[in-house]
Design goal:
By secondary structure, the protein is an alpha+beta fold. The protein is built from ten helices and 15 strands. The structure holds succinic acid (SIN) and cobalt (II) ion.
Length: about 375
């Protein structure tokens, strides 16, 4: 991606300028970010996805002023002519190639932060109420119109009489109606309320993810256990004196434990491996269709569900890590960054790396690149 090239998608800013001026800092409204925008799914396709039990969806209704939330699968949607409902379908990028392509436009932010594409469809007046999100979001108007009201309020008190996280005292500061092709970027923690203006309002949300320090530690620490086999030096205490407090934990044993835990975490590449594997772990509802070995002379493309990252010594794919160096590392990083390798690039892989690519193709993580 050309990170220094101004783009209409970011209101004439380059991705580099956008990240400096707006990312995690202040909202941006972009008129006609996408000319001739096409929703990646029709209402019918969205309704079919929402009816599946392996797709995350929610139906929010505010009929007669009463907020209701129903988690999917949603077998039937209310009529589009009935005002006050919205359907939200998560993870569209896993299910539809066009949704993946839309998400890919936002890869000027690290893949490690990119989460998914959610699509919402609403009848007139539909919305999820004024709320905060903890993550950055790009809200793309794909069809119909939506009125957004946003504000930077500190008052985070939520209503306790509704099944959704709705702000009790919403004080919007700005208001605008987005038309198809327009986009709104919001940093985390901005109060916002989007209400459909007319039927058939479709909005795409490009969502990001972030962990708390403790959440990340809880996720990473069990992964260190994979490398610990319980062998090594036994605890020894030749200087232990007779104890009048036999129940007290010996200080030397605490020291021994501290050093053992620190050594486990500080093993070369252990933290890097744990982080890379955790960040590329597929979501619980993701599955891959098994494929066949990559045909000779063909390029390769990452399956739209695959998550691939790398660091200086390893590549990570769908929760697994692989050591890579030299030319293979350069090529594998290319696969991760561009999500594809040309036939010529595949031909330059070492036999070992080529074998790995074949395995990934059989696992359905990589697909042959249509030539
Ligand atoms: C929506 O698309 O209706 C809701 C998106 C949001 O406000 O986060
Ligand atoms: Co929101």
């Amino acid at each position: 991606m050309q990170i220094d090239l101004p783009t209409p998608m970011l209101a004439g800013l380059s991705p580099a300028q956008f990240m400096r001026k707006h990312w995690q800092k202040k909202p941006l409204v972009v008129r006609q970010a996408f000319a001739d925008v096409q929703p990646p799914a029709s209402l019918k396709e969205l309704a079919a996805l929402a009816a599946r039990d392996d797709v995350e969806s929610r139906l929010v209704t505010a009929f007669d002023g009463a907020w209701k939330l129903k988690h999917g699968p949603i077998p039937r949607l209310p009529a589009m002519s009935k005002p006050g409902w919205t359907l939200l379908v998560q993870g569209l990028d896993q299910h539809l190639a066009d949704a993946r392509a839309l998400l890919d436009l936002f890869r000027f932010a690290p893949d490690a932060r990119l989460d998914d594409l959610m699509l919402s469809v609403a009848s007139d007046g539909g919305g999820v109420g004024p709320h905060f999100d903890s993550y950055d979001v790009f809200l793309i108007q794909l069809a119909g119109r939506r009125r957004w009201r946003i504000g930077a309020q500190r008052d985070a008190v939520l209503r306790d009489d509704v099944p959704l996280k709705i702000i009790a005292n919403f004080k919007p500061e700005q208001e605008f109606v987005l038309e198809p092709g327009d986009m709104l970027y919001l940093p985390p923690g901005w109060a916002h309320d989007g209400v459909a203006v007319g039927p058939g309002c479709m909005t795409g949300s490009v969502g990001f993810r972030a962990s708390t320090a403790e959440g990340l530690a809880a996720e990473l620490l069990p992964r260190f256990l994979d490398e610990i086999d319980g062998t090594g030096k036994l605890y020894a205490d030749p200087r232990q004196e007779a104890s009048a407090e036999p129940a007290r934990v010996p200080a030397a044993l605490l020291d021994f434990a501290r050093r053992a835990v620190e050594a486990a975490v500080q093993r070369p590449l252990a933290l890097e491996r744990a982080l890379g594997e955790a960040l590329t772990e597929p979501k619980a509802n993701v599955w891959f269709e098994l494929g066949e070995t990559l045909p000779p002379g063909q390029g390769a493309v990452l399956d739209r569900r695959s998550r691939m990252l790398y660091d200086d010594a390893q590549v990570f794919l769908n929760g697994e890590s692989f050591r890579a160096s030299g030319r293979d590392a350069v090529l594998m990083r290319g696969l991760a960054d561009r999500r594809a390798l040309t036939a010529a690039e595949v031909a330059r892989l070492s036999p070992g790396a080529r074998e790995l690519l074949d395995q990934w193709t059989e696992d359905g993580w990589v697909q042959p690149l249509a030539s």
